[in-house]
Amino acid sequence: MKILVLCLIALAIADKFDQFRAFDEDEFGRTLIDTLQMQMSTGEPIARFIEIMRNLETSIENEQKEDDKANNEYQNQCTEDIKILQQESANLERRTVEIQSILDELEPLRSYKQGQYDAKNAWKVETEKKLADLVKKRETEKAEFDKKVEEHDYATFVIETVRRMFSDKNQSFLQMNNESQWQKVRDYFINASEQAKKFEIKKSYSKLFNVFAEIANAAQSEDFQNSPTVNKIVNLCDLMLKQIEDSKALETKAEQKRLNMFMLEKGNFDKDLTSLNNALAQLTAAILGLDNRIQDQKRDLSDYNARLDAKNKQSEDRGGECREKAYNYQLTREKREQKRQLVSQIIGAFSANQRDFAEYVKLRGQAGDFRGKNFQVLGNPTED
């Protein structure tokens, strides 16, 4: 029975100390109670402990006020810094927009100039081709004309040679007998006919020479000196020489006309090519200038984009620092407030239950480091 009573008394006393044990379970609270225990062990008045606690509470409040002030100043500085960084980012971004706007103007202009260059260059290529075709055509015409002149000159030479055979009384030709003379004339025309077959243009000369050969062949039985065929051949030669001369004159006139037309057309092509070359040179210079400006603007845009990224990163980093600082401030404030409340609670509990608190501290000291554990209040509970 005695043991049961002692246990009940111990439990009753233990329940009375629950609030104090709660203080002791907190590390800071245990430190405060340790301080109270030291105060009591030195014999100083309990009121001194109350004064220390109130001073501590005031100190915590003052520290919080200082911390609040410092935090407000820091966060205000953060706001100002971020505002400045954001403004700098906005300025950089505005500059990138301006540069991009310039590029949006320059690049289509460059494409337009390139299109002009390509069109004029295609025109130049086509003009050069037409000029080359014209020159080639002219060379063909000139070669054809030269060939006609050559063939006309050959025919003239053949006919004049035959005519001299009949008209030159001093030639040894006249000393031949009739048959030999006619044979020579015939063979000469046959040979000329064979040569004329190689003509590229005036192939009709071959037939003409054959006609002369047939006339000479038919006249072999005639007396060459008194033959009417001689006069016929001479007259025919004169007629043919006149026709050849007229034909040559017409060909020469046509050739001159073709040459004049060629020079006119070539002059027009040369003027076009000069104009095109000047235009292409100007366009090349313009395109090169645009390329340089575009390259400069792209280089500036790349630089401003890099600076903008760096500035945004700096702003983000600064914002992160400020948020971290605010978070740490809030944690510190909460912990400090917990300490202040704990000090206030201990002061209130001690003031309201000074005797019980003093007894708890005394028993705590007797039991060693209490640290929130139950301890034996009335001695050994197993003792009778």
Q: How many angstroms does the end-to-end distance come to?
A: 9 Å
Measured as a percent range, the helix fraction is over 70%
Oligomeric state of the chains in view: single chain
Element order, helices and strands? Answer: HHHHHHHH
Number of continuous helical runs:
8
Q: How does the major sheet shape up?
A: none
Radius of gyration: 66 Å
DSSP strand tally:
0
Estimate the global geometry from the Cα principal axes. rod-shaped
Q: Report the β-strand fraction as a percent range.
A: under 5%
Structural class: mainly alpha
> What is the averaged pLDDT score?
81
Low-confidence stretches: 1-13, 369-384
Describe this structure in a few short sentences:
The chain is mostly helical and 384 residues long. It has helices spanning 2-16, 18-25, 27-42, 46-167, 178-196, 204-218, 228-352, 354-366.
